[in-house]
């Protein structure tokens, strides 16, 4: 009977499809409507509002000295915070991916902790530590060191908020790579550092860039944590997102959206770079936590693989 | 080299030591400062602060709006992930890349953009206001902002699971006479539960702490549209460190408990449906 009805089975080469898809068009429409409403429209709104009063008003707004000071500070903060988290990310991934030790999964959970903390609380922590009435407040005042309501506080808050990004991306990448390459290099007489620079780093470079990209986007765009510790001193402790807020609250909408459009461009560049890296190395899409997500399963699998590998080596 | 025999790859002590040191300095010590500071309040004072009507209202709003936003994201995130994995359509790669926009777009930018859209004279507000729906400067606006913020989490947790799903099981269900809806509810959905829960938990946790995108659209009226993170900032601006710390501790404990609960639920779902 089955032979009498040819369309039931397709030739093996052809992609199998469910026979009828009554909901297909409806589902695609629903998804596009949702994404259009929540992603595309806000993005369009930023650029149209920024250019609402013409290109010259736009250019004037982003060349304002206060805007420039904010741009420069934002770049500085990211330039300090990202390398700190980069070194940490590499060290943590090395320890977690290359070795077995007790408490490893607890350590991974602790690394993720900043994702579960509100940015506002992140700022509050540093005020409790370094503020006028904080634990180290007296010491800092005696030595005329300003942390809170100054650039060091902004950097610290940014480091906290972006803490897990690079480690989170590198751990699965390094776990997938195992340690065979390193062991070969070492057995051929390379030193530990030579092995790291010449073998490990080239192996993980795409994953590393991926983490840096995501870390940088969040570092430049962080608002809540930085807002709490910054003190909002114009030209001094005002980052770009804070400058957007100030302009907006002064009803200077064109200028606010002009500065915001620069941040939106940064976001689009980040997405483009991210897509490029995922195209270069498709595993990044899955192995990575997507910055803050999806870690659970991928992590479990990764740790499992590492464990299997050691078992194999021991036997 | 006698050490080679035991551990070939070097640097364990250095990297683990540095990891622990950095983790302690940046995360553990600052975070414990919040808890230790709150101990200094005394239990009676602590209780007075966190049970003040304004604080309770803000916590209710933060967790309630986050719950609604996370549920919206579960529903539409499932549809978006499904469409991206199963169907082909023009510009699919671009759409896929755009899903991450809320991760990349600074929250303050999202906040003012959404406010501009939903304000009574905005593109969407103009259409909604005559219908009697006000989004901007109401709790509804908070839900909109939190939906935006949590959008990628559910999509990105579901996508890999959907890609791995064995289609033969669905086809078997169809062969056995199941309708598309039956196959979805009985065959596909059970396999997706753990990922849906993870996505929900991540979106919810992010939404609870969110500040930047919400404060522009919320209106920030005490008792009505004031979220808990904003109340922390307000107390800090009034130099009420004790009050700010107490609210922070409640939020931290609730979020951590929630994440643990969702983790446990996820493990339970995983073991029940015996996913690999």
Q: What is the number of independent domains of chain A?
A: 1
CATH architecture descriptor text of the largest domain in chain B:
Orthogonal Bundle
Question: Percent helix among the residues of chain B?
Answer: over 70%
CATH homologous group name of chain A: MetI-like
**Structural class determined from secondary elements of chain A:** mainly alpha
Structural class of chain B: mainly alpha
How would you sum up this structure, described in words?
The complex is a heterodimer of chains A (315) and B (276). With 315 residues, chain A is mainly alpha-helical. In chain A, 73% of the residues lie in helices and 0% in strands. In chain A, helix 1 packs across helix 13 (253-280), helix 3 (65-98) packs across helix 7 (151-161) and helix 7 (151-161) runs antiparallel to helix 11 (224-230). Chain A starts with 23 loop residues before the first helix and ends with a helix. Chain B has 276 residues and is mostly helical. Chain B folds into two domains: 10-39; 42-272, Orthogonal Bundle (MetI-like fold), CATH 1.10.3720. In chain B, 76% of the residues lie in helices and 0% in strands. The longest helix of chain B is centred in the first third of the chain and has 34 residues, at 53-86. Chain B is globular, with a radius of gyration of 23 Å. Classes of the chains: A mainly alpha (315), B mainly alpha (276). At the A-B interface, helix 1, helix 3, helix 4, helix 5 and helix 7 of A face helix 1, helix 3, helix 4, helix 5 and helix 6 of B.
